[in-house]
Amino acid sequence: MRGRRPVWAAVLGVVVVAASAACSGDEPLTTPDGSTISTTVTRVAEVNIVSADRDFSKTCLAPTPADDAATDPTRIVVTDPALLDALCALGIGDKVTAVTAAPGSVPAYLGPRLSSVPAIGTAPDAAAVSQADADLVLLTPETAASSKPFGSVRSATIPAGDWQEQFQAVADAVGRSEAGRQRLAEFTTEAAKTGRRMDASHTQVSLVRFGEDSETIAGMDTFAGQVLGEIGVQRPGPQRVPDSFPVTSENFREAEGDLIYVSFEGEKGQEHGEEVLLSDEWLGLGASMWKRVLAVDDAVWYDSSGLAAAWLVLNDVKGSLDGNS
Q1: Does domain 69-175 correspond to CATH entry 3.40.50.1980?
Q2: pLDDT digits 0-9 by tens, 234-251
């Protein structure tokens, strides 16, 4: 497979273009009776897309109470867009007034509310700082410099850690320690329940990502691998390793599984993936012959890392572990 040209970001692009056209004032396509015609793409290269019609406006969870209302922050600036997932999962995304990052840095899966938060650059000027009017700045060791323009405003550094540790650290920083523990416990309980209900321990799931000119088997330490582990999903023997590894002509069969979730890294990844998914080699895999290959959102399954994204992955698995292409 290596050297071929693996499909999916372009599909997202089609969906986004359709949505953008509607938002820009263009009239949606309709039937003669006036009913709107859906433009959501649901298949790519003969593979069904999981949650193709997902509504990202519903990603964030219900608001959580503060441990102490008297010290509850009301205006939060975040210096690393990755920290926004935790605020989304805590239901307090409406408290975020600015992100010190480049425009477009907020992940789309967090929904329109957080996507519309002003991105004021890594070195915001005085006007942007004044407009943000923060009473708490969340930062990481790598993005600490972006907090300097905020002077004496209270700040909290979120240390490195796995996604659950980072979520709890953010919950602690915004005065929601108890709520954070409860939210993590709710997820763990639901993931385990889902695994039992779907008999996940008896399904071996393969994870394959397509890049511009590559195919990679995702390791168990990837975000998707960790969430599948929480659910109790098994991985094929060769994939039971922490790190991801490339697919070559020699190990091609290691991509096999009872079910294969594929994803695409950008438009070029989708172009390459489409060719591979329609190749004789791929179509000769048992999962492909039995129509047990499904496409998932790479940005959610791999590029993200947080409780809000974990719920999206879990819901994807709920709706697809028993499904076919």
Answers
A1: yes
A2: 999 999 999 999 999 999
